[in-house]
Amino acid sequence: MMIDFALLPLYLTTVVALLLIPGPDMLLIASSSLSYGRKVGVYASLGNATSGLLLTLLAAMGVSALIAMSPMALQLLRLLGGAYLLKMGWDCMRAGPMDAPEVAQDNNLAKILYRRAVFSNLLNPKALLFFVLFLPQFVSTNLAASSGEQMLALGLLLNVMGLLFNLLLVGMVGSLGKPLLKNEKFRTYQNKFMGLIFFTLAIWLLASQVQTMS
């Protein structure tokens, strides 16, 4: 047994509450689904889940705890993450109307959004700190499993719940955005819309850096 069932109800309740709080990941997935359709939103959700699995493995191995103890490493992560998101926003802003992807040609776009979702979450130090600070709260001393094994199980459960929630979000937002994908005027500005989203995410991330340093 790798999860203490006495703590499981509290853990599940906490995870659901956290998933309902709007954040950068929700913003990226929802905007991707609205702008480019459900398929792209699904890939963005899978990218977010991939980064979550990587962070879970790091937390279970204790690597993320070591990084979290280094203020310089956290500041570097914030700066890299903000710079990466700014670049994505700039690339979208520079794209002209002719660069707006066709709905029937979204395979490449889906892969791009998958990679962006992976890196935007991995380069978010708040995600790193979340796994370092949150998962250990539910590690039990009553189990034979090690703390690393328990954190791995808790992280996997969190990622499964997060993926299901994001896919539900994609289904809801993607359905609302489907008529927009057929609107030529909307397609002219959809890259600009995504550019604003990435700029917002960058400001979100860099603002946390300023607050930490002040």
Automatic annotation (TrEMBL):
It is a multi-pass membrane protein. The keyword Transmembrane applies. The chain crosses the membrane at residues 53-77, 118-139, 151-173, 193-211. GO terms for cellular component: plasma membrane. GO terms for molecular function: amino acid transmembrane transporter activity. Coiled coil: none annotated. Keywords: Cell membrane, Membrane, Transmembrane, Transmembrane helix. The keyword tRNA-binding does not apply. Pfam families: LysE. InterPro entries: LeuE-type. Its main location: membrane. It is found in: Cell membrane. PANTHER family: ARGININE EXPORTER PROTEIN ARGO (PTHR30086), LYSE FAMILY TRANSLOCATOR (PTHR30086:SF17). This is LysE family translocator. It comes from Shewanella hanedai.
